[in-house]
Amino acid sequence: MALEGGMKCVKFLVFFFNFLFWLCGIALIVIGVLVQLELNKTLIMSSPSASGAPIVIIVVGVIIFFVSFFGCCGASKENYCMVTTFAVLLTCIFLVEIAAAIAGYIFKDKVRTALQDGLEDAVGKYSSDPLVKDTMDKLQKKYSCCGASNYTDWFNVEPFKGNNSVPKSCCWANATMATCNINPTADTINVHGCAGSIEAWLKKHIVIVAAVALGIAFFELLGIVFACCLMKGIRSGYEVM
To answer: Which domain of life is it from (predicted)?
Structure first.
């Protein structure tokens, strides 16, 4: 009886952890979509190194979402094959997440390069592409920045070349002068580049992503352990109610 009661407990724990996986899957999907939208606003999504990370997060979230449902069915039906498949898939996801974390650390500098290149390209197209102009203006206002590296980037492109001016979106939010973008100084505009400001935003919010990833990895390990225990119980022929 003690063993049967223990197996009941394991079965309910498998249900519990699958519910947590389901929530984690939704969390990853939401985080991935938000990062995708935010990076899309920075005009660098044409770069594979920049767009890869949020896509991986979304894909892993979707997989976890469905695998958790699969695990619940296996535990409910006490099906050895389904529970085994669930444990194997969960182990694969865990290994993929470790590989993604290592790859993210190795290629983190390429994100900075892609960000810089994308913003420099946007500065060059500012006067010829209305969509780029609108997006760049919103970006500079949101991040309180100007240009790619700094505000002097605008001195090399039309229509600002030769007249020592920058877009009005570079002006401080509380600027009252209508000509704040003419002969700009640190007192009238944001002089820092958008590449540095966006990179700082990403570093600040990556802590949240890392915390969620660590939490998911911890629960995945526990889920794998409990799934293996349930597999052993089912295979041994014990009744799990």
So the answer is: Eukaryota
- Averaged pLDDT score across all residues of the chain: 78
**Do 170 and 189 contact (CB within 8 A), yes or no?**
yes
Q: Render pLDDT for 68-115 as a digit per residue (tens, 0 to 9).
A: 877 877 777 777 788 888 888 888 888 877 877 777 677 666 777 878
Q: Which residues of 177-208 are buried (b: 16+ CB within 10 A; e: fewer)?
A: eeebbeebeeebbbbbbbbbbbeeebeeeeee
- For 179-197, how does the pLDDT look when each residue is reduced to its tens digit (9 = 90+)? 888 888 888 899 999 988 8
Nearest-angstrom CA–CA distance, 77 and 136: 55
Distance (Å, rounded) from C-alpha 123 to C-alpha 19? 47
Query: Are the CB atoms for 229 and 9 separated by under 8 Å?
Result: no
What is d(CA 45, CA 72) in angstroms, rounded to the nearest whole number? 37
Contact criterion met (CB below 8 Å) for 56 and 100: yes
Q: Domain range holding 167?
A: 5-239
- To the nearest 10 degrees (0 to 180), the angle between helices 194-235 and 80-106 is 160
SS3 238: coil
CA distance 209 to 172: 31
Q: What tokens were used for 117?
A: 């290149």
Please provide residue 165's backbone torsions phi and psi, each rounded to the nearest 5 degrees.
-140, 170
